[in-house]
């Protein structure tokens, strides 16, 4: 008798999005979010928004917890950036600024502190501008530390809450859109980061 057993179809290869969500849903997902959030505010160039989105997509019930961790870690990272600007600018901060060719932008940013104070952090923290440059500039300008912390908490909390809520409310739809337009999303992400650097340079 001839066997009618059919060969099992090959396993579908996981997309980058599926891998990111799988990592975010694992036991180290929130730790990864905290590390990226901290690093981005002090030296790392990539924003934590994609990791936050993946965490919320993986487990929607962690919406509030993920937002709180992302915000707290970003503020702590901001304090590290502030310390670099305040006491380590010549040894570390200056190298970061020169690496991105933002010497003139740094000077302009410091001058605006005299007029706007912490409000300049609130405004810039909601934009794609690299936040580490804001925190280092705050330290160089010796902005009041309490004002700095409160401003960072407000601006980062608002931004991350918006990102988390969008993926909490429209998670399935967002995941489907990302899956269909992976290349466009990747290019868009790169352009957002580039726009942030360009905007800071034009301050």
TrEMBL record:
Superkingdom to which the source organism belongs: Bacteria
Keywords carried by this UniProt record: Membrane, Transmembrane, Transmembrane helix
Stretches that traverse the bilayer: 20-43, 63-92, 113-131, 143-171, 183-202
InterPro entries reported in the protein's UniProt record: DedA_domain (IPR051311), VTT_dom (IPR032816)
Signal peptide extent: none
PANTHER family with a match to the protein in the record: ALKALINE PHOSPHATASE LIKE PROTEIN (PTHR42709), DEDA FAMILY PROTEIN (PTHR42709:SF11)
Protein name per its UniProtKB record: Cytochrome B
């Amino acid at each position: 008798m001839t066997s009618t057993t059919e060969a099992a179809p090959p396993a579908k290869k996981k997309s980058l999005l599926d891998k990111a969500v799988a990592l975010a849903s694992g036991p180290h997902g929130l730790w990864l979010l905290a590390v990226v959030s901290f690093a981005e505010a002090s030296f790392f160039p990539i924003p934590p928004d994609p990791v936050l989105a993946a965490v919320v997509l993986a487990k929607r019930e962690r919406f509030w917890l993920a937002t709180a961790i992302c915000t707290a870690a970003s503020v702590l990272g901001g304090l590290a950036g502030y310390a670099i600007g305040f006491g380590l600018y010549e040894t570390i901060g200056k190298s970061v600024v020169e690496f991105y060719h933002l010497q003139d932008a740094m000077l302009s940013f410091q001058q605006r502190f005299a007029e706007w104070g912490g409000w300049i952090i609130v405004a810039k923290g909601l934009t794609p501008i690299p936040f580490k440059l804001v925190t280092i500039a705050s330290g160089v300008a010796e902005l009041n530390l309490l004002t700095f912390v409160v401003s960072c908490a407000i601006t980062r909390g608002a931004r991350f809450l918006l990102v988390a809520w969008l993926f909490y409310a429209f998670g399935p739809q967002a995941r489907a859109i990302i899956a269909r337009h992976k290349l466009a999303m990747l290019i868009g992400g790169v352009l957002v980061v580039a726009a942030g650097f360009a905007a800071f340079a034009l301050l």
